Amino acid sequence: MTAQYVVDPDAPLARPQEVAGVRVVLPATWWAVDLRDEAARRRSIATLVGQQLGRGDELAALRADLRRHLEVVAIDAAALGGQLLAISLTRAGPVPIPASVAVYRALAGDRARETLANVEAALRAEPATSDTVDAAQGPHGPVLRRTRTASGAAEIGAQDVPMLLADYWLDLGDGAGLVSLTFSSPLVEAREALLPLFDTVVASVTPVTGSATPTRKRSTPA
Length: 222
Fold this sequence. Notes:
The chain is α+β, with helices and mostly antiparallel strands and 222 residues long. The protein contains four helices and twelve strands. A hairpin with a 2-residue loop joins strand 5 and strand 6 (95-96). The longest helix has 20 residues, at 60-79. The relative contact order is 0.21.
Protein backbone atom coordinates (compact mmCIF):
# COMPACT_ATOMS: atom_id res chain seq x y z
CA MET A 1 0.00 0.00 0.00
CA THR A 2 1.29 3.46 -0.89
CA ALA A 3 2.02 5.61 2.16
CA GLN A 4 -0.04 8.52 0.84
CA TYR A 5 -3.20 6.46 1.31
CA VAL A 6 -2.75 5.85 5.03
CA VAL A 7 -6.03 6.56 6.84
CA ASP A 8 -6.09 7.05 10.59
CA PRO A 9 -8.95 4.99 12.11
CA ASP A 10 -8.60 7.16 15.22
CA ALA A 11 -9.48 10.33 13.29
CA PRO A 12 -12.26 12.31 14.99
CA LEU A 13 -15.77 10.95 14.52
CA ALA A 14 -17.80 14.10 14.89
CA ARG A 15 -20.86 13.94 12.63
CA PRO A 16 -23.61 12.04 14.48
CA GLN A 17 -26.59 11.26 12.26
CA GLU A 18 -29.95 9.77 13.24
CA VAL A 19 -31.90 7.88 10.58
CA ALA A 20 -34.03 4.73 10.30
CA GLY A 21 -34.05 4.22 14.07
CA VAL A 22 -30.29 4.31 14.48
CA ARG A 23 -27.57 6.78 15.32
CA VAL A 24 -24.30 6.58 13.38
CA VAL A 25 -21.26 8.77 13.99
CA LEU A 26 -19.36 9.72 10.83
CA PRO A 27 -15.86 11.15 10.45
CA ALA A 28 -15.81 14.94 10.69
CA THR A 29 -14.71 15.18 7.05
CA TRP A 30 -17.68 13.22 5.63
CA TRP A 31 -20.76 14.87 4.10
CA ALA A 32 -24.16 13.35 4.91
CA VAL A 33 -27.13 13.30 2.51
CA ASP A 34 -30.59 12.33 3.81
CA LEU A 35 -32.09 10.06 1.15
CA ARG A 36 -35.62 10.02 2.56
CA ASP A 37 -36.65 13.36 1.05
CA GLU A 38 -35.91 14.10 -2.61
CA ALA A 39 -35.92 17.89 -2.25
CA ALA A 40 -33.61 17.78 0.77
CA ARG A 41 -31.34 15.36 -1.06
CA ARG A 42 -31.02 17.69 -4.06
CA ARG A 43 -30.32 20.69 -1.83
CA SER A 44 -27.66 18.81 0.11
CA ILE A 45 -25.90 17.65 -3.07
CA ALA A 46 -26.06 21.14 -4.58
CA THR A 47 -24.56 22.63 -1.40
CA LEU A 48 -21.78 20.04 -1.39
CA VAL A 49 -20.92 20.68 -5.05
CA GLY A 50 -20.92 24.44 -4.48
CA GLN A 51 -18.61 24.14 -1.49
CA GLN A 52 -16.20 21.86 -3.34
CA LEU A 53 -16.09 23.69 -6.69
CA GLY A 54 -17.17 27.24 -5.93
CA ARG A 55 -19.46 29.37 -8.10
CA GLY A 56 -17.14 30.47 -10.90
CA ASP A 57 -18.45 30.23 -14.47
CA GLU A 58 -15.30 28.41 -15.58
CA LEU A 59 -16.28 25.40 -13.46
CA ALA A 60 -19.96 25.30 -14.41
CA ALA A 61 -19.61 22.18 -16.57
CA LEU A 62 -17.59 20.38 -13.89
CA ARG A 63 -20.18 21.28 -11.24
CA ALA A 64 -22.96 19.92 -13.45
CA ASP A 65 -21.06 16.66 -14.02
CA LEU A 66 -20.35 16.20 -10.31
CA ARG A 67 -23.94 16.99 -9.41
CA ARG A 68 -25.22 14.40 -11.91
CA HIS A 69 -22.75 11.82 -10.62
CA LEU A 70 -23.82 12.32 -7.00
CA GLU A 71 -27.50 12.30 -7.95
CA VAL A 72 -27.11 8.93 -9.67
CA VAL A 73 -25.33 7.49 -6.63
CA ALA A 74 -28.01 8.87 -4.29
CA ILE A 75 -30.93 7.73 -6.46
CA ASP A 76 -29.51 4.22 -6.74
CA ALA A 77 -29.00 3.98 -2.97
CA ALA A 78 -32.51 5.33 -2.30
CA ALA A 79 -34.02 2.86 -4.78
CA LEU A 80 -32.54 0.01 -2.73
CA GLY A 81 -34.04 1.41 0.45
CA GLY A 82 -31.12 3.58 1.53
CA GLN A 83 -31.94 6.08 4.25
CA LEU A 84 -28.64 7.95 4.42
CA LEU A 85 -25.67 8.46 2.09
CA ALA A 86 -22.36 9.86 3.35
CA ILE A 87 -19.45 10.93 1.16
CA SER A 88 -15.83 11.22 2.24
CA LEU A 89 -14.15 14.59 1.74
CA THR A 90 -11.04 13.35 3.56
CA ARG A 91 -7.57 14.15 2.25
CA ALA A 92 -4.17 12.72 3.10
CA GLY A 93 -2.17 15.87 2.42
CA PRO A 94 -3.19 16.92 -1.11
CA VAL A 95 -4.48 13.43 -1.99
CA PRO A 96 -8.26 12.83 -1.73
CA ILE A 97 -9.50 9.64 -0.03
CA PRO A 98 -12.74 8.94 -1.94
CA ALA A 99 -15.25 6.70 -0.18
CA SER A 100 -18.97 6.58 0.58
CA VAL A 101 -21.40 4.70 2.78
CA ALA A 102 -25.13 4.04 2.47
CA VAL A 103 -27.21 3.11 5.53
CA TYR A 104 -30.25 0.82 5.32
CA ARG A 105 -32.76 -0.70 7.75
CA ALA A 106 -35.06 -3.69 7.27
CA LEU A 107 -38.75 -3.02 6.70
CA ALA A 108 -41.22 -4.14 9.33
CA GLY A 109 -42.45 -6.95 7.08
CA ASP A 110 -38.90 -8.24 6.51
CA ARG A 111 -37.81 -8.38 10.15
CA ALA A 112 -38.95 -11.92 10.89
CA ARG A 113 -37.10 -13.51 7.96
CA GLU A 114 -34.12 -11.17 7.61
CA THR A 115 -31.98 -12.37 10.48
CA LEU A 116 -28.22 -12.21 10.76
CA ALA A 117 -28.07 -16.01 10.63
CA ASN A 118 -30.08 -16.04 7.38
CA VAL A 119 -27.87 -13.40 5.79
CA GLU A 120 -24.69 -15.24 6.81
CA ALA A 121 -26.03 -18.56 5.52
CA ALA A 122 -26.90 -16.96 2.17
CA LEU A 123 -23.46 -15.39 1.85
CA ARG A 124 -21.60 -18.58 2.70
CA ALA A 125 -23.80 -20.60 0.33
CA GLU A 126 -22.73 -18.51 -2.67
CA PRO A 127 -20.30 -20.11 -5.17
CA ALA A 128 -16.63 -19.71 -4.33
CA THR A 129 -15.53 -16.11 -4.88
CA SER A 130 -12.85 -13.77 -3.59
CA ASP A 131 -15.36 -12.34 -1.10
CA THR A 132 -14.34 -12.41 2.55
CA VAL A 133 -17.07 -12.96 5.14
CA ASP A 134 -16.32 -12.26 8.81
CA ALA A 135 -18.57 -12.51 11.86
CA ALA A 136 -17.78 -10.70 15.10
CA GLN A 137 -19.35 -9.34 18.27
CA GLY A 138 -19.70 -5.56 18.12
CA PRO A 139 -20.27 -3.12 20.99
CA HIS A 140 -24.06 -3.45 20.69
CA GLY A 141 -24.51 -6.92 19.21
CA PRO A 142 -23.31 -9.29 16.49
CA VAL A 143 -21.88 -7.90 13.25
CA LEU A 144 -21.38 -9.56 9.87
CA ARG A 145 -18.99 -8.11 7.28
CA ARG A 146 -18.52 -9.06 3.63
CA THR A 147 -15.52 -7.54 1.83
CA ARG A 148 -15.24 -7.76 -1.94
CA THR A 149 -13.97 -6.10 -5.09
CA ALA A 150 -16.34 -5.31 -7.96
CA SER A 151 -16.64 -3.01 -10.95
CA GLY A 152 -18.08 0.46 -10.50
CA ALA A 153 -21.55 1.46 -11.69
CA ALA A 154 -22.02 1.75 -15.45
CA GLU A 155 -24.51 4.59 -14.88
CA ILE A 156 -21.66 6.89 -13.86
CA GLY A 157 -19.14 5.56 -16.39
CA ALA A 158 -17.21 3.62 -13.75
CA GLN A 159 -17.73 0.12 -15.13
CA ASP A 160 -13.97 -0.26 -15.69
CA VAL A 161 -13.02 1.02 -12.23
CA PRO A 162 -12.38 -1.64 -9.56
CA MET A 163 -14.16 -0.78 -6.32
CA LEU A 164 -13.56 -1.94 -2.77
CA LEU A 165 -16.94 -2.81 -1.23
CA ALA A 166 -17.56 -3.58 2.43
CA ASP A 167 -21.09 -4.65 3.40
CA TYR A 168 -22.04 -4.80 7.08
CA TRP A 169 -25.12 -6.22 8.78
CA LEU A 170 -25.85 -5.54 12.46
CA ASP A 171 -28.41 -6.83 14.91
CA LEU A 172 -28.77 -4.18 17.60
CA GLY A 173 -31.19 -6.33 19.61
CA ASP A 174 -33.90 -3.67 19.63
CA GLY A 175 -36.44 -5.76 17.68
CA ALA A 176 -36.51 -3.21 14.85
CA GLY A 177 -34.70 -5.32 12.25
CA LEU A 178 -31.21 -5.51 10.87
CA VAL A 179 -29.16 -2.43 10.09
CA SER A 180 -26.94 -2.64 7.03
CA LEU A 181 -24.21 -0.33 5.78
CA THR A 182 -22.40 -0.54 2.46
CA PHE A 183 -19.07 1.26 2.08
CA SER A 184 -17.37 1.73 -1.28
CA SER A 185 -14.08 3.22 -2.46
CA PRO A 186 -12.02 3.07 -5.66
CA LEU A 187 -8.89 2.81 -3.51
CA VAL A 188 -8.75 -0.98 -3.66
CA GLU A 189 -5.05 -0.89 -2.79
CA ALA A 190 -5.88 0.96 0.45
CA ARG A 191 -8.08 -1.88 1.73
CA GLU A 192 -6.06 -2.50 4.91
CA ALA A 193 -6.16 1.21 5.79
CA LEU A 194 -9.84 1.76 4.98
CA LEU A 195 -11.38 -1.29 6.65
CA PRO A 196 -10.42 -0.22 10.22
CA LEU A 197 -12.04 3.17 9.54
CA PHE A 198 -15.19 1.48 8.22
CA ASP A 199 -15.20 -0.83 11.26
CA THR A 200 -14.97 2.19 13.56
CA VAL A 201 -17.98 3.87 11.93
CA VAL A 202 -19.99 0.64 12.20
CA ALA A 203 -19.04 0.29 15.86
CA SER A 204 -20.64 3.72 16.49
CA VAL A 205 -24.10 2.54 15.35
CA THR A 206 -26.62 2.53 18.22
CA PRO A 207 -30.42 2.20 18.34
CA VAL A 208 -32.58 5.30 18.79
CA THR A 209 -36.07 4.90 20.22
CA GLY A 210 -39.07 6.72 18.78
CA SER A 211 -37.66 7.07 15.24
CA ALA A 212 -39.57 6.68 12.00
CA THR A 213 -39.75 3.24 10.37
CA PRO A 214 -38.11 2.78 6.96
CA THR A 215 -40.54 2.76 4.05
CA ARG A 216 -38.51 1.20 1.23
CA LYS A 217 -36.96 -2.19 0.70
CA ARG A 218 -33.29 -3.17 0.94
CA SER A 219 -32.28 -6.19 -1.16
CA THR A 220 -29.98 -8.64 0.68
CA PRO A 221 -27.51 -9.92 -0.07
CA ALA A 222 -26.50 -9.04 -3.63
